[in-house]
Write a structure and sequence with these properties.
This protein is of the alpha/beta class. It is 30% helix and 24% strand. The protein contains 13 helices and 18 strands. A hairpin with a 4-residue loop joins strand 1 and strand 2. Keywords: Pyrimidine biosynthesis. It comes from Acidithiobacillus concretivorus. This is Dihydroorotase. Pfam families: Amidohydro_1 (PF01979).
Length: 424
């Protein structure tokens, strides 16, 4: 199918291109980036006046509960939410039910994703059987079944020897590993940041030192094998500094931050707000500001929504009982534009952290709007202001602390392989 997008501001972090022009798409690829002749035949012409076209966003941590029990969402509902947010590619977390530690589960996910034909789905396979950290998964078989990355989801591996073995195998197979860096014994069973606030609320605290100790260990072990590492959701400035130092030594390590840790703090837990329960937990205002400085300084490769939906039946749970996570992939772009409004990032830098940055960290082909590139793109209105209504979202999860926030930036179209998979 031939499609033209006319008079749109094209912003491409892959080469820094920024101009109001046209895009032509044929056979799923971008064929023209520039003025398109009036006699160019197309089945559809989209008016891009006032819109920005950028490479499709990449969500590096999406819990879709497929396979799972369905009450918290499934691949269909969560991919609908993703494309509504301009996301064209997602990396599924392996902590499904059952865990994605066998070829059969990865194949099931891929077949369902192909049938849905929404966002591209990259499978992350469990690094250890059942994510228990006791024995390695069948890593070669998982690679053959389509795994693009190995992951422990939110479970650290306690055994340093097993982690070294796992990273050595991953390095031999040529796949990156996503890790949740945390010392399990220091973290204990904390449900929020350890501080004076957690003491006043009577909630078990999770110390920031657990992350700082864990990341130093994981980086040191990875250096023994040269395995590429990606820490997708760090919560402390010290952890990001450790990644920066490792990169300066030439080690293959990247880090990301969830948008929630850049906009919120432990204060948002308020009076036991279960929608502000995250892993790693929201930290102090000082840590939030340290993360924001790291983003502004270019020390962070990716921003994600760390999408973790859970159903309405969890609303009655206490803060300790409630699961960790926020459902926000549909609002990732406008939430990130808050950082632009605050003067922390340029718009181009923000788009880079949502598209080419995650691709670099995960070893995926960089999304681009250059001629010849696959036509995965997001078109959004950067000036459209709206009020967040969780009930209006496509996700089955309603667990987000942004209800009634006024945000800027509405996704109007999402294209995957040149097909319009979402239009507002």
């Amino acid at each position: 199918m031939h499609r033209i997008i006319r008079n749109v501001r094209v912003m491409d972090p892959s080469d820094g291109f920024d101009a109001v022009t046209d895009l032509a798409i044929s056979a799923g690829k971008i064929t023209i980036r520039g003025a398109v002749a009036e006699d160019f035949r197309a089945e559809e012409i989209l008016d891009g006046t006032g819109l920005v076209a950028c490479p499709g966003l990449i969500e590096s941590s999406l819990q879709a509960h497929s396979p799972g029990h369905g009450r918290d969402g499934d691949l269909a509902s969560e991919l609908q939410a993703a494309v509504a947010g301009g996301v064209t590619q997602v990396v599924l977390r392996p902590d499904t039910q059952p865990v994605a530690d066998t070829p059969a589960i990865l194949q099931e996910q891929q077949l369902l994703a192909e049938k849905l034909a929404l966002a591209r789905v990259q499978a992350s396979a469990a690094l250890t059987t059942g994510l228990q950290g006791q024995a390695l998964s069948e890593m070669t078989a998982l690679l053959d079944a389509g795994a693009r990355v190995f992951s422990q989801a939110k479970q650290p591996i306690r055994s340093a020897a097993l982690l070294r073995l796992a990273l050595s195998y991953a390095a031999d197979l040529g796949l990156p590993v996503m890790l949740h860096p945390e010392d399990s014994e220091l973290a204990a069973h904390g449900v929020m940041n350890e501080s004076g606030l957690s003491i006043r609320l009577g909630l078990p605290g999770r110390t920031a030192v657990a992350e700082q100790v864990g990341i130093q260990r994981d980086i040191a072990i990875a250096a023994l094998s040269g395995c590429p590492l990606f820490f997708p959701h760090l919560s402390t400035g010290a952890a990001i500094a450790a990644v920066k130092a490792a990169r300066q030594r030439g080690e293959k390590v990247h880090c990301g931050v969830s948008i929630h840790h850049l906009l919120l703090s432990e204060q948002d837990v308020g009076f036991f707000n279960v929608h502000a329960k995250l892993l790693p937990p929201l930290r102090s205002l000082a840590e939030r500001d340290a993360l924001r400085r790291a983003v502004a300084d270019g020390d962070v490769t990716a921003i994600s929504s760390d999408h973790s939906p859970w159903g309405i039946d969890r609303e009655s749970m206490t803060f300790i009982q409630a699961p960790f996570g926020i459902s926000a992939v549909e609002w990732l772009l406008p939430l990130t534009l808050r950082l632009v409004d605050d003067g922390l990032l340029s718009l181009m830098a923000a788009l880079q952290l949502l598209s080419t940055g995650p691709a670099q960290a995960l070893g995926l082909p960089a999304p681009s709007l250059q001629v010849g590139s696959v036509a995965d793109l997001c078109l959004f209105d950067p000036e459209a202001v709206f009020t967040v209504n969780p009930a209006s979202g496509a996700s089955r999860g309603r667990n987000l602390p942004y209800a009634q926030w006024d945000l800027r930036g509405r996704v109007r179209y999402t294209l995957v392989d040149g097909r319009v998979v979402f239009r507002a």
